[in-house]
Amino acid sequence: MKKSLLALAVLGAFAGAASAQTNVTIYGLVDASIERNDDNNGPITWGMRDANSFNSGKNGSRLGFKGTEDLGGGLSALFVLESGFQVDSGAMRGDGGLFSRQAYVGLQGGFGTVKLGHQYTPMHLALDTIDPFGTGMAGNIAYQFNNNGTRMSNTVNYSYSAAGFTGQAAYSFGEVAGDQGAS
Questions:
Q1: How far is it, in rounded angstroms, from Cα 103 to Cα 105?
Q2: pLDDT digits (tens, 9 = 90+) for 11-23
């Protein structure tokens, strides 16, 4: 009986140590505004506007989950699941998918970071770092330089940082028979 209790205590100690390494964050943002519309040809109207339009708000409303797990030896697993929604109606934003903003898993270590899934394009992230309005301008500018826009599905992304500089490359698998470029 004492051996069983000792084994149970040892297993319990390992389970506690493993769960202590996990870091999961729930985050979000809600952005909406009231607008007055006067087109000089009709009545003045007032309404609530979700933030994802050019003439309203700053950022799209979202709910997300992100986390890391220390795997030991300088290696960590990471994930992000982020869903967009319209605060005025509660409807899902984007293509209607549950995590249409971002959904990826990855590994991070001394070699850099590798992420797999639906994620921001390198062009968007580069422009976002210099955009004084957060992603207010970068998303629109990214379309001018890259027809993939803000996010790409089926993407493998590799990034590496050293001495204050970061480099990044991404490839999006098509997953459409006969057309590797379509996603």
A1: 7
A2: 454 444 444 457 9
